[in-house]
Each structure stands twice: as C-alpha cells, then as structure tokens.
Design the sequence.
C-alpha cells in the first residue's frame, strides 16, 4: 500500500501526539524512489550532497544550481514523501531579499515542499523574510556544517550550560519566527530533550539523542555505503557498500572467465549471416 504523504499540519500534530517519525537524505531519482517505497516520512536533499555525491571536503562550495539539479529528480522519484530542499551556503546570508528570492527560486524550479537553512537567532530576519514569501521553513541549529569552522570544527555543540541555553533560546525564537520544524545536530541527549520540550514544533535530531521527535540520518551512512567517514551517531542498518563491491567483483570475475553472459542473458535467435571476409 502506498504511504500517505505528510502534510504541514501533520508536523505539529505528530509532536502534540508524541508520534515519532523518520527522515533521511536522497540526492537522485533511484534513491528517492526507494525511500518513497519505504515507510520513511521525509526526504532531505541536503547540501551534504557536496561530500556524498560530488566528493567535496565540505558543504561550502555547493551552489544553488547543484541543489536544483539534485532536488528535481528527487521530487520526481518520491511523490508520496515530504521533500526538503536545503539552501546552500551563500544563498541566504547576504540579505533578506537574497534569502527570499533564492528560497522562491528553489521552490519554483523544483517543487519541493519546504526549504531548510542553518542558523539560530542571527537568522531570524532571513527566516521571517522567507516565511513572509509564503514558503515553509525548516530551521537547523546545533552543529551547522556550513559554518562548522567558526564553531571549532565538526564537534558536539551545547556542552556548556550557556551554549545549551542558547540552543533552547534559538529553537524558541525560530518557532516564533515561523519555522514549522527544526533540525538539531550533534548535541548531548539532555540538550536534545530540553530543546524538544521548549517548543511545540518537532525537533528533528541527528546525533541529538533519543528524546527528540524525529531521527535524521544520511541514507548513505545508515545503509553503510559511504566509506570515507562514520560519525559516532551513525548506526549502519545495512552493509550496502560491501554488497555492491561483492556484486561488481562477481560481474568482473564472470566476465574475465567468459561465463557471463550465459544463454539466459543472451538473444539466442539463429541468424544466417552472409560471410563478408
Ligand atoms: O545536508 C544534510 O545532510 C543535513 C543533515 C546533516 C541534516 O543538513
């Protein structure tokens, strides 16, 4: 049975009912169609595609064009899944006008369901400008990869009373500014709990412990496909990279041995071919 696509109203409803939900990344049509066939509720076309799809060291170089190129096939592949389009670094920091016009472009050119942008209280004006343009905004606080170097690298955030309180304040202000949900990345579990309890919108945790409303993971991480790096918070629910390497090696072996393609995989019609040489 096809699943029912989440609506904007479901986000608050699920939070109010204490109903947990799930969220993964996809950057291409095939992966999107696989997620669409699963029970997972939300897809993020994240700027993590910079590392996972394009081989960059970080997310800073990802462009609006990269995002649009990847969001479009995901929207085609997952018609029954809520789809989030990430706003890349540099597409919303400069001014409210830049933020609103790039958010409008992302929605207009891809038909995704909302945009996501990184930052706490310092981004309130940008968030209000985008919400004011009639676009659903998902916030992202805690470890914000686009500005990770200014946070001291890819490190757990909210580890002191002051920084934890700042995250709670960020979440409350983002909710007031109109965000319908917030990603909270890489914080101690108690901070995940405090942030989640402070707001009526869902907190979508990645490395934020078990007390948040939704769990987010990068698909290539949770399926064991990405070989470069595995953060502590990633559980590998499958070993797809190994299965792919094994499959490729079997193909190579049968090719060099001459056992592939057997008659089963060949067109076996007899043809009387005139001799030309
Ligand atoms: O781009 C991304 O994959 C993200 C997740 C880390 C939430 O923003």
Sequence:
């Amino acid at each position: 049975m096809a699943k029912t696509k989440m609506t904007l109203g479901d986000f608050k409803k699920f939070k109010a009912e204490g109903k947990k939900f799930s969220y993964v990344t996809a950057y291409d049509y095939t992966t999107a169609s696989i997620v669409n066939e699963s029970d997972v509720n939300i897809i993020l076309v994240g700027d993590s595609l910079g590392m996972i799809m394009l081989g960059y060291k970080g997310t800073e170089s990802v462009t609006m064009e990269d995002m649009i190129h990847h969001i479009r096939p995901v929207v085609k592949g997952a018609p029954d899944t809520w789809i989030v389009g990430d706003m890349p670094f540099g597409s919303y920091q400069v001014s409210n006008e830049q933020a609103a016009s790039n958010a409008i472009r992302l929605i207009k050119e891809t038909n995704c369901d909302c945009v996501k942008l990184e930052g706490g209280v310092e981004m309130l004006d940008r968030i209000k400008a985008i919400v004011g343009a009639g676009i659903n905004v998902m916030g992202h606080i805690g470890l914000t990869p686009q500005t990770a170097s200014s946070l001291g690298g890819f490190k757990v955030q909210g580890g002191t009373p002051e920084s934890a309180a700042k995250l709670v304040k960020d979440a409350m202000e983002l909710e007031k500014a109109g965000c319908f949900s917030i990603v909270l990345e890489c914080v101690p579990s108690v901070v995940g709990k405090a942030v989640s309890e402070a707001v009526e919108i869902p907190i979508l945790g990645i490395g934020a412990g078990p007390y948040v409303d939704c769990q987010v993971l990068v698909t290539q991480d949770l399926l064991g496909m990405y070989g470069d790096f595995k953060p502590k918070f990633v559980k590998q629910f499958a070993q797809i990279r190994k299965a792919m390497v094994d499959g490729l090696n079997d193909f190579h072996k049968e090719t060099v041995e001459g056992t592939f393609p057997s008659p089963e995989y060949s067109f076996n019609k007899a043809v009387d071919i005139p001799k030309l040489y």
Summary: The chain has a mean pLDDT of 96. The two ends are 59 Å apart (CA to CA). Residues 240-257 form the longest helix (18 residues). The pocket of 3-methyl-2-oxobutanoic acid is lined by residues 25, 44, 46-48, 86, 140, 183, 185, 206, 216, 218 (CB under 6 Å).
